[in-house]
Amino acid sequence: MLKKYFLLALSSGFAGLLQAQQSEDGIQPITLEEVVVSFSKETSRHKDIPASITLLSGKQLEQDGIRSLKNISTGVPNVFIPDYGSKLYAPIWVRGNGTRSSKSAQSVGLYVDGIPYPETAAFDFEFYDIENIEVLRGPQGTLYGRNAMAGIISVTTRSPLNRRGTDISLSGGNYGDGNFTLSHYAKAGKKLGVAAVANYNRMGGYFTNQHTGKKADERNDFSGRLRFTLQHNKNALSDFHAAYEHSRQEGYAYSLYDPETGTTDSVNYDEPSSYTRDLLSAGYHFTQQTRWGSIRTITGAQYLKDRQAVDQDFSPLPKYYAVQPQTQTMLSQEVLARSDFSRNYRWITGFFAFYQRRDKYVEVTIPAMNAQYQISDRQPVFSAAIYHQSSYNNLLVEGLSLTAGARIDREYVRQRYVSDVVLPSSTRHEANTDLMLDFFEFLPKVALRYGFLQQAVYVSIAKGYKTGGFNTSFREGMDEQTYDPETSWNYEAGLQLDLPLATTIQAAVFLIRWKDQQITQIVHLDNGNDDSVIHNAGQSESKGAELSLSSQPVGNLSLNASFGCTDARFRQYVVSDTLNYNGQRVPWSPASTFSGSISYRIPLKSFLNDMIFRVGYNRTGKIYWHEDNRAVQQPYHLLNGSVSMGKGPVTLTLWAKNILQTDYFVYYLNEPAIGVLVQKGRPFTFGVDVKIAIVR
User: Fold this and answer.
1) I need a surface site. Which of 71, 83, 117, 412 has the fewest CB within 10 A?
2) Strands (DSSP E) along 340-466, which ranges?
3) Among 125, 148, 123, which Cα is nearest to 137's?
């Protein structure tokens, strides 16, 4: 009934009001503001970069209800981030490249206010007071280094120098969902800006554990951020920011699925499962302008402590129970210099180094054997790199620019691994290893761009790189303890158009060829357990296209759409003499993505300031769940909508998601000892947001 009323409100609003409001002279002329990317290393304007880029503004994030990294794939072509329900891992797929295992490094680099987030367990954090999010697709290793072979996601928070006042945001929804944010921005004198933000987020849970009668996916998050920005003078600026988040969530909403009948059981397991995480991140920037450009130093630090407890058999029987605590510490330092971007010849050069240490402990209890398997895994990593990139504008002819760059990356990683079997009467030592790996990579990039009449076309070639490493489970005597780096070559051509009626279009076609693609497989270990192990899969290829469009044909009507298609396949993936996956599609990555939204603003001169109607539609193409391509998630559709109204400093928004109540899977795994496990996507949800802006 609520869904019908919501659809009726949206349809009636659009039916009566989509007769475009125009001036007496016809369509009103519109000028779009210049988009500035705060922490981009290449240029101050994103449209000058010869690459596929999507910029999500803070306003757009609020309108779409995007509160975490897992939601940003809405509106970004060929980007897919499924929500498995746990903050331990946020799998990111871009153009067919990604990984679904928390044991493997990401293929996409994440930066928050210019600080790298190297640990995948830190990727999923709450979004609030975000200035913009920049998504660059394709290898970005020349400037950003390791694990940026599929792209970069750069999150920029709001600066206290550009904002003053206090904001209060409240949100409530069905299933017991809620969110509260309090932010305050102030200036101490003319040079120092201060920002303090606190957030509480609650997810009441969408799936009930039949065995306990409680929600299997309830979550509570407490977080806060401080930022101090000091403008020393017109040429020097310091910026310090620190963020902390404590997250506690129940887990996991997995249930058994019968592929033959298509029936899904209820979530039903006995052992208490959860994921708890404390995440502290901090960074310091200092920028000095010079006569020839600028020098910037970026210092980052991150500390993560978490604990995962999981009923590994996901049944009411006491079979397998695992507890996995870990700590991770990261320190990074970058120094870069870049020229004045107003000149034809532009350059940027820098040095980057980081140290990361991860200590993980795993304890698996098997009651039937009265035994425990204990694993201690310590991995320190040190990496250093130098890079340079030059661009020359108006080369030979006006509007033609050439960009070329390279990075030299060196990394050392060590593993100290101990594995024991603890029995009632004895302890058996299974493994005790101390190994060292080192990696060296040269990452070049070349791009040619031609700009004319506010339009541009470009071609680029870039090498991508994803570091190798150690498995935390392996079979003695088998070549599984380590896996090799993954590399790729990305060939891309695209165009960027600014058209009448405030319309912008971005389009690109690409071809990616991978070598030694890292694939996660389930293997039967010597101790009798099944666990995931990372292998290298020979050669793979991805080709596809993407298109983004935004338009404001009349003053109060906004249209946005994005489409991406990807054909990612294994060219050479031989498992054994009798089994290979040559020609099969790369699993977990959708064959296509589409999103579109329409928003219409109605200026009101009576009680309310204005009213905004918004409808969003998303379609995810076929997803193959395994290398053999037998199990598949058919394309599914999600319809969302909202109605906003405001009066003075108060804005009220009524929203709904998955209005069509689409039933789909976000997780599918065939465990040989258990069966097929699945997790359903979120059901129909609705709620209300209230925002109060107190500006001084």
Assistant:
1) 412
2) 345-366, 371-392, 400-422, 427-452, 455-466
3) 148
pLDDT at 497 over 80: yes
| CA-only gyration radius of the chain, Å | 26
Q: What is the pLDDT of residues 597-634, one digit of tens each?
A: 999 998 887 777 789 999 999 999 999 999 899 999 99
- Residue 35 has a pLDDT of 33
130-137 vs 52-57, strand pairing mode: antiparallel
Task: Give the residues across from 564 on adjacent strands.
Answer: 546, 593
Q: Is 162 exposed, middle or buried (0-12, 13-18, 19+ CB in 10 A)?
A: exposed
| Cβ–Cβ < 8 Å for 274, 250 | yes
Rounded distance between C-alpha atoms, residue 416 and residue 481, angstroms: 12
143 phi, psi to nearest 5 deg: -100, -25
**Rounded alpha-carbon distances, angstroms, from residue 275 to 202, 316, 628:** 15, 20, 32
- In the three-class reduction of DSSP (H, G, I as helix; E, B as strand; rest coil), residue 367 is classed as helix
| 549/551 Cα distance (integer angstroms) | 7
DSSP structure string for 233-273: ETTEEEEEEEEEEEEEEE----EEEETTTTEEPPP---S--
Distance CA 531, CA 113 (A): 36
pLDDT of residue 476: 53
Q: Count of CB atoms within 10 A of residue 179's CB?
A: 21
Residue 161, token pair as written in the block? 């120098």
Tens digit of pLDDT for each residue in 129-156? 899 999 999 999 999 988 898 999 999 9
Is it true that the peptide bond before 252 is cis, omega within 30 degrees of 0? yes
CA angle in degrees (0–180, nearest 5) for 400-448-517: 170
**Helical H segments across 18-150, by residue range:** 58-64, 141-144
Give the Cα separation of 396 and 470 in Å (integer): 49
Handedness of CA 442, 92, 595, 570 (dihedral sign): positive
Q: What is the C-alpha separation between 488 and 494, in angstroms, rounded?
A: 19
Between CA 156 and CA 560, with CA 84 as vertex, the angle to 5 degrees is: 50
Q: Give the model confidence (pLDDT) of 232-248 as tens digits.
A: 998 999 999 999 999 99
Q: Band of the pLDDT at 25, cuts 50, 70, 90?
A: very low
